[in-house]
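Retry 2 of 3 after timeout on previous attempt. Resubmitting structure tokens to design endpoint.
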């Protein structure tokens, strides 16, 4: 029967259409074993939910099955880790540890879209910055970025030494990186597929000159989809903040989120309930427009503290529309920063305010 060299040669004829290289040279074929006509090997995909998975598996199977003497082909599926993926995409893995040092990487996640993740990310970053921490935001919502708009920030980004991207500084000095800063036309739609998106996220982590940060907040794409999971797997997260709303189907949201956190071995640091009622701007009265809160139940089920309940406040919406999220001055933001500051205080101490931002 065909030997391993011949099998690899057959597999070399199969190209990843996206990376335009053959699957053997890309390091996708692993653990090749042959035994009396049976061929076993592992196919390591760029990401677990690679859209080309079925096609690549079918092509690899046919290529090997057509070789003389082969009676059975068994293919195990696996996914590349971050370093392997970077190598496959031809991205240098040279990091500059002396120029980038991030103490805590915290992702803001939700069970569904439009619950205020980006707002909470922005408010928290602004609040932490005000409290004296060094803060950055990695906008991981590549197909629907909203961080630049919240901060009224624009590109283009400057290139820092070592060909790294310089984050854009917000008014108060929060370091921001978003796909919007890299697009010629901000309104341009990003319709990349999974592997491209995770490549961007990894570049935002590896190739951005973040400098010294106490907190890097990651604004995730909505939901607990594969896209969000891929993003989370691409980054060295220390913890997750989960944003929920009173309308959320509590049990389902928690189950999904807890499962996701477990999948990536990352603790849920706490729950933020957004849209927790409506505060009338004229009277300051709180109206319970969405009925009773499930936030504490969610927190209990996730075995995480309820950090804060943030009502809908028209002033917040107005400031966000103006790109002035940093001008929001609400007690809930201070409460959130305090709750998180306590939770993540190990090794993180507020720094004196930076004089020159970025
Ligand atoms: N508590 C609040 N008070 C006032 N406005 C709010 C509040 N929460 C959210 N909003 C407004 O609702 C809109 C949606 O919020 P946001 O973009 O943060 O949601 P998201 O969860 O990030 O959405 P997506 O899932 O699309 O990323 C924003 O324009 C924001 O200004
Ligand atoms: Mg968002």
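Retry 2 succeeded. Sequence:
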């Amino acid at each position: 029967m065909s030997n391993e060299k011949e099998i690899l040669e057959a597999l070399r004829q199969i190209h990843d259409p996206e990376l335009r290289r053959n699957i053997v040279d890309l390091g996708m074929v692993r653990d090749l074993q042959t035994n009396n006509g049976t061929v076993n090997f592992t196919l390591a995909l760029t990401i677990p939910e690679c859209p080309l998975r079925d096609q690549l598996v079918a092509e690899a199977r046919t290529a090997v099955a057509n070789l003389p003497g082969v009676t059975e082909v068994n293919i195990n599926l696996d996914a590349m880790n971050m370093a392997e993926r970077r190598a496959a995409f031809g991205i240098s893995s040279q990091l500059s540890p002396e120029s980038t040092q991030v103490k805590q990487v915290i992702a803001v996640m939700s069970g569904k879209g439009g619950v205020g993740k980006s707002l909470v990310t922005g408010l928290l970053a602004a609040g932490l910055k005000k409290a004296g921490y060094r803060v950055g935001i990695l906008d991981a919502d590549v197909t629907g970025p909203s961080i630049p708009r919240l901060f009224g920030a624009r590109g283009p980004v400057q290139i820092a030494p070592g060909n790294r991207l310089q984050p854009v500084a917000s008014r108060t000095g929060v370091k921001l990186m978003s796909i919007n800063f890299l697009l010629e036309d901000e309104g341009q739609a990003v319709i990349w597929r999974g592997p491209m998106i995770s490549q961007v996220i990894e570049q935002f982590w590896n190739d951005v000159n973040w400098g010294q940060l106490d907190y890097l907040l990651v604004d995730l794409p909505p939901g607990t989809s594969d896209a969000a999971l891929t993003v989370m797997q691409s980054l060295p997260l220390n913890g997750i903040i989960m944003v929920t709303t009173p309308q959320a189907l509590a049990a389902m949201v928690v189950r999904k989120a807890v499962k996701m956190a477990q999948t990536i071995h990352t603790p849920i640091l706490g729950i933020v309930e957004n849209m927790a009622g409506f505060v009338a701007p004229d009277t300051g009265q709180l109206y319970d427009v969405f009925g009773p809160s499930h936030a504490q139940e969610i927190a209990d089920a996730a075995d995480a503290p309820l950090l804060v309940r943030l009502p809908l406040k028209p002033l917040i919406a107005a400031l966000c529309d103006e790109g002035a999220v940093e001008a929001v001055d609400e007690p809930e933001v201070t409460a959130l920063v305090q709750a998180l500051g306590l939770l993540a205080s190990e090794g993180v101490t507020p720094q004196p305010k930076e004089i020159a931002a970025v």
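Attempt log closed. The chain has a mean pLDDT of 85.
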